[in-house]
Amino acid sequence: MVRLAVAALSSTLRSPRLTSLLGVALGVAFGVCFVTGLLSHLIQHPPGWFWWPSRPVQLYRFTQGLHVATGLATLPLLGVKLWAVYPKLFGWPPVRGILHAAERASVAVLVAAALFQVVGGLFNVYHWYGLMPFFFTTGHYWVAWLAVGALLVHIAVQLPVVRGELGRGKPADPARRRLLTGTAAAAGLITLATAGQTVRWLTPVSVLAPRREKLPVNRTAAAAGIGVIGPDYRLVVTGGTREIALDLAALNALDQHTAELPIACVEGWSATATWSGVRLRDLVTLAGGDPERAEVLVESLQQGGRYRASELPAEHVRDPLTLLALRVDGQVLPPDHGYPVRLIAPNRPGVLQTKWVGRLTLRERS
Ligand SMILES: Nc1nc2c(c(=O)[nH]1)N[C@H]1C(S)=C(S)[C@@H](COP(=O)(O)O)O[C@H]1N2
Ligand SMILES: [Mo]
């Protein structure tokens, strides 16, 4: 009885129209996710032609929040879509010719790549690195191209079907409408349950958001191997016409400025704080560099690790909001937020907001 009912239900629910609707929703979500992800990659590994502004200060926070939110929202869509089409896997004959074989292969690549991206992204957001035997960012980047290539082939092949299905006004089937509403609701719930990590007024309802603290810490001072900062600490600025080395008293004696800026982690969490300290452009001037043209390499006291250094393009160096912060929210920086000095610049990924800064090297692009 139950089996029959389920069979009857699925036969009415599974239809080219349902598959088309889910496909369009997935296509849009993946498209947004791909473009925002590519942008994040370009900002972190800028090729010569690439330019990224320092304003609006919240832009990266928005694009990366969107990247993670659209990625997570694809989970239920992907689940239902795979359910809607999987009987096709067992269609007979398995291959009806060269084109058909190519199409099936592209679908296999698409499904595998999509699952890899969404599941890998999820692991990354929740810091389950142990489950990934490779460096996440590299895998995520290259598989994204694979997914998009396969997606474009898939769209090209299926477009006529989708057009036919969605162009024709059809009487709505209540059961199918319920399924679609349920899928949309699941995507909405996932979004609500996680968006609070970046849309801060949603934090109370975002029970699945992994980083709900007011200002999360990505890597602690202990984890980065930063010991006690003694009186011999100096911030060294080189590459200008004179090298300078400033101790904490000297840094505190310079003009102090305040900026309200977010840390926007690639993992999707973000939080705004009030930072104060010395303008980077003032330090460039002090060291005999040109604050309008200099680019700056920012290095941490941290000995190793992928995120021990970052580079600031001229756009960000000259921005008066770019600070070497000594304080956050009116307090001396806590060790975990980068004591004695950290970089905070507008419209940049969190990974580039270097903590425990020890050295700045000026460069001028010729
Ligand atoms: N030296 C150093 N700076 C670093 C990191 C690091 O691992 N080492 N992590 C970065 C990352 S990934 C983020 S998101 C921010 C987080 O800053 P917070 O811990 O003060 O919130 O610091 C950045 N600065
Ligand atoms: Mo981060």
TrEMBL record:
GO terms of biological process kind: respiratory electron transport chain
Annotated coiled-coil segments of the chain: none
Any Gene Ontology CC annotation: membrane
Residue ranges annotated for the Oxidoreductase molybdopterin-binding domain, each copy included: 232-365
Swiss-Prot/TrEMBL keywords: Membrane, Transmembrane, Transmembrane helix
InterPro entries to which the protein is assigned, alphabetical: Di-haem_cyt_TM, Mopterin_OxRdtase_euk, OxRdtase_Mopterin-bd_dom, OxRdtase_Mopterin-bd_sf
Keyword Transmembrane helix included in the entry's annotation: yes
Superkingdom: Bacteria
Residues that span the membrane, as ranges: 21-44, 64-86, 107-129, 141-159, 179-202
Protein name in the entry: Molybdopterin-binding protein
